[in-house]
Amino acid sequence: MLPQKPNIIYFDKGGKEHTELVLQKVKEYIEKIGDDAVLAVSSTTGFTAYETLNIFSDCNTEVIICSQDMNKEYSMPTKVREELTSKCQIVEIPLKYLTKKIGIEGVTVLRNFSQGIKVCIELLLYLMELTIVQPGKTVVIVGGTLKGADTAISAKVISDKKYKVLHIITYPES
Fold first, then answer.
1. What does 82-116 look like in DSSP terms, one character per residue?
2. For 139-161, how does the pLDDT look when each residue is reduced to its tens digit (9 = 90+)?
3. Which residues lie below 8 Å from residue 140, measured CB to CB, with a gap of 6+?
4. Cα 99 to Cα 153: distance, rounded to the nearest angstrom
5. Where are the beta strands (DSSP E) in the chain?
6. Domain ranges of the chain
7. Are 80 and 96 spatial neighbours (Cβ–Cβ below 8 Å)?
8. Is residue 70 predicted with pLDDT exceeding 80?
């Protein structure tokens, strides 16, 4: 049985300014479905990771921060990575991982929904491949752009290669 359908929060356009609201809505969603969900959050520079740890500081939710070094401007500084590592698990997503997995056409299809949807699916597939998230687990994934979070979805891991998207929790319309 699926968790109760959340009220989807739509944003006129994506952006960093939505990060706190996205994380608050994700927290409410996880509280409704139970604390055994895993939270996977994309954070390139550390901004979204810090926001997540602040909002989830009073929860037992397992938090996994997924990082990807893009370039000098968009990478997580060593000091930030070390501090975050003491508080949660950090997983480095390889560059072009999703393109290698599903091809440029598949990536383009996901980006046509939103950059955040593409990021969420990329994180989910990589965490499944590494068996960090196990079959039977519900994973709530937060993604967006290089500057902040604007997208959140939940998915149920069915097997090591199969998943089912349960809900879109937040979504930018453009």
1. HHHHTTSEEEEPPTTHHHHHHHHHHHHHHHHH-HH
2. 999 998 877 799 999 999 999 89
3. 26, 29, 30, 37, 38, 39, 40, 152, 153, 154, 169
4. 20
5. 9-11, 38-42, 62-67, 89-92, 138-145, 148-157, 163-172
6. 13-172
7. no
8. no
Entry field: residues in the chain: 174
Reduce the DSSP state of residue 164 to 3 states and report it: strand
**Domain 13-172, CATH among 3.40.1380.20, 2.60.40.10, 3.40.50.1370, 2.40.10.340:** 3.40.1380.20
Chain-centroid distance of CA 149 in Å reads 8
Q: How far are the Cα atoms of 21, 42, 118, 135 from residue 59, in angstroms, in the given order? A: 17, 19, 27, 23
